[in-house]
Structure formats: structure tokens, C-alpha cells
Amino acid sequence: MTDGTVTEFTPLISLIGGLMIGASAVLLMLLRGRVFGATGILAGFMSPQGSSDWAWRAALLFGMATGPIAYLIVTGEMPDIQVPVSTGALIVGGFIVGIGVTYGSGCTSGHGVCGMARLSPRSIVATLSFMVSTAVTVFVIRHVIGGV
């Protein structure tokens, strides 16, 4: 990177994380017949169709939220999480992502992990649009506007 920041890529941790995401997506499809889409899981948690529907969503969201604690238990230290943008940028970005997942009928976990694995044409197009949008956004923020 040209601005002096360093990205720490750890292949083993990344592989383990990818395997865990893949395994959880397969298990959710196998056991519940549901696609592992984080925004859909959260939306269903907020307005459940029944108590068993709410329970698995609550358990999954709890696991996502407590991941750093599991990391602490395994490694003895909290993960180093850096967010190099302002709170305002996070809020605007979250709002834009919320609009995108609504109109795109899903998020990167639903389309990118599960939909691509099922060779869904809609998910392939959605994932390509996520990637192109990300590249354009990073280019504009870093090279046109001059932000982080």
C-alpha cells in the first residue's frame, strides 16, 4: 500500500475461518434447509416465524458476536481489530449496504458463499456486482477523494 499501512494476511487463520464458514453453511443447509445469509438470519431473528426458527437464529448470532471471546480463550489475547474510517463513514456504509442487501435479495454470505456453491446464476451476478462495486468504491475513496 502506498499510504504506509500494512495488511496482515495470515493464511492459516484465514483457512480455518473459511473452513468454519463453509462448514456452518453446509450444516445449516443440511440440518435446517436454510441458506447461510447473515442479513437474512438477522432479519428473521428480528421477526421470527416461530420459536424454533428464532432459537437457531439466536444461537448463530450469539456465536458470531462471541467469536472474539473464543479467539481470546484459544490464543490468550483479543484479536487486533482496526477500523480505519470514521464512525460517520461506518454509519453511511452500513445504510448503503442495508439498501443493497434489500434490493439484491441477500448479502455476500448468502450469495457469495452459498449461492456461488450452488452455481446460482443470480448469486453469481450479485457476487460480481459486489466485487465490482467494492473495487470502484476503494478506487474512488483512495485515489479520487483521497481518503484512507
Number of strands: 0
Q: Total helix count?
A: 7
Q: Tell me the number of structural domains.
A: 1
User: Mind summarizing the main beta sheet?
Assistant: none
Low-confidence sequence ranges: none
Order of helices and strands: HHHHHHH
Descriptive notes:
The chain has 148 residues and is mainly α. It has one domain (11-145). The protein has helices spanning 11-32, 38-46, 51-65, 67-75, 87-103, 108-117, 121-145. Helix 2 (38-46) packs across helix 3 and helix 6 packs across helix 7. The chain is globular. The mean pLDDT is 85.
Please outline what is shown here.
This protein is an all-alpha fold and 148 residues long.
List the helices and strands and how they pair.
Blueprint: H1 11-32, H2 38-46, H3 51-65, H4 67-75, H5 87-103, H6 108-117, H7 121-145
Helix pairs in contact: 2-3, 6-7
List the defining traits of the structure above:
single chain, 148 residues, mainly alpha, 7 helices
